[in-house]
Amino acid sequence: MTDTLARRIDGKAFAAGLRARLAAEIPSLGFQPGLAVVLVGEDPASQVYVRNKAQQTVEVGMRSFEHKLPAETTEAEVLALVATLNADPAVDGILVQLPLPKHIDADKVLLTIDPAKDVDGFHPVNAGRLATGANALVPCTPLGCLMLLQDLHGSLAGMEAVIVGRSNIVGKPMAQLLLKADCTVTIAHSRSRDLPALCRRADILVAAVGRPEMIRGDWIKPGATVIDVGINRLPPDASGKSRLVGDVAFAEAETVAGAITPVPGGVGPMTIACLLHNTVTAAKARRGV
Ligand SMILES: NC(=O)C1=CN([C@@H]2O[C@H](COP(=O)(O)OP(=O)(O)OC[C@H]3O[C@@H](n4cnc5c(N)ncnc54)[C@H](OP(=O)(O)O)[C@@H]3O)[C@@H](O)[C@H]2O)C=CC1
Ligand SMILES: Nc1nc(=O)c2c([nH]1)NC[C@@H]1CN(c3ccc(C(=O)N[C@@H](CCC(=O)O)C(=O)O)cc3)C=[N+]21
């Protein structure tokens, strides 16, 4: 423990700045980038998230195309919609909200998205490009984490980074980005031995597990930078309020860490801002600007 609390990394403010820079750039492009979001089913959390995305898309001056389909939609219908969006010249970015209902093969849907419009960066072509150091559309959440880290530290060269979680959406692309930024990278997962000891090596600790407050204060090296990707909604307490917490026990961690992202207000807002950023990048590349 140290006497001072960790610096809180304000992802919400950084994301607002990023959106303001996009809003300033878009009028000079000579065309209006368009983002299509596909939502299958009625999951209330996804509906809120998709509404936020659509609102922020319009606020920065882009076109938003929302496709809300009922939960019973067939896989063939989703594939046909993606094909239509691939062919639509007004659409620069396509995002299919995950998770999809169980009867739809998500990998098959992601493979159908034109890699040039894959603003989530989930298509294997973009994952392969990122892994080999080529120009890629990079998954939004890890891209947002990298921006926060570079804003705080400048160069990350030589730093020990430990990422807990190895999903294709967060953990793996985060590792690729930190490796590219010259960190020494360790990826931990559910089969890792002595996770607390692994975490204590980290100058940069990224938590992307999906387990509320799993990472404790005494797993953190004093002064380390902690990036908490986890978004976990706890069941309502006695007063009926449900609370959002990360994968890190924040109150403990902030007495040890040098800097830490809060939940909410940390990584989450960066994900949406990076989605808009990727849409502008994809639009410029496709239209040869
Ligand atoms: N802020 C944002 O914008 C976003 C937040 N999220 C949040 O981030 C979190 C992670 O998401 P995502 O990557 O999609 O999740 P996944 O469930 O796809 O992956 C979780 C990873 O954590 C690992 N894991 C699970 N339990 C343990 C454990 N006890 N010890 C060590 N590792 C463990 C798993 O290991 P294994 O591979 O061995 O099973 C897996 O690699 C979630 O809370 C999600 O809601 C996700 C996307 C965007
Ligand atoms: N194809 C696809 N791409 C995604 O990027 C994707 C997805 N599917 N499915 C779901 C996850 C989750 N995700 C979040 C994004 C922003 C916040 C966010 O803005 N959070 C705010 C507020 C959250 C709240 O109050 O509910 C915050 O952390 O401050 C959260 C979660 C993107 N995901």
From TrEMBL:
CC per GO annotation: cytosol
Associated pathway: One-carbon metabolism; tetrahydrofolate interconversion
Reaction(s) catalysed (UniProt annotation): (6R)-5,10-methenyltetrahydrofolate + H2O = (6R)-10-formyltetrahydrofolate + H(+); (6R)-5,10-methylene-5,6,7,8-tetrahydrofolate + NADP(+) = (6R)-5,10-methenyltetrahydrofolate + NADPH
Residues of the Tetrahydrofolate dehydrogenase/cyclohydrolase NAD(P)-binding domain: 139-286
Residues where NADP(+) binds: 165-167, 231
Name recorded for this polypeptide: Bifunctional protein FolD
GO MF terms held by the record: methenyltetrahydrofolate cyclohydrolase activity; methylenetetrahydrofolate dehydrogenase (NADP+) activity
Protein's job: Catalyzes the oxidation of 5,10-methylenetetrahydrofolate to 5,10-methenyltetrahydrofolate and then the hydrolysis of 5,10-methenyltetrahydrofolate to 10-formyltetrahydrofolate.
Family: Belongs to the tetrahydrofolate dehydrogenase/cyclohydrolase family.
Recorded name of the encoding gene: folD
Keyword Signal in record: no
Domain Tetrahydrofolate dehydrogenase/cyclohydrolase catalytic as annotated: residue spans: 9-120
Signal peptide (residue range): none
E.C. number: 1.5.1.5, 3.5.4.9
HAMAP family membership: THF_DHG_CYH
InterPro entries: Aminoacid_DH-like_N_sf, NAD(P)-bd_dom_sf, THF_DH/CycHdrlase, THF_DH/CycHdrlase_cat_dom, THF_DH/CycHdrlase_CS, THF_DH/CycHdrlase_NAD-bd_dom
Keywords (A to Z) from UniProt: Amino-acid biosynthesis, Histidine biosynthesis, Hydrolase, Methionine biosynthesis, Multifunctional enzyme, NADP, One-carbon metabolism, Oxidoreductase, Purine biosynthesis
Subunit structure and binding partners: Homodimer.
GO BP term, example: L-histidine biosynthetic process
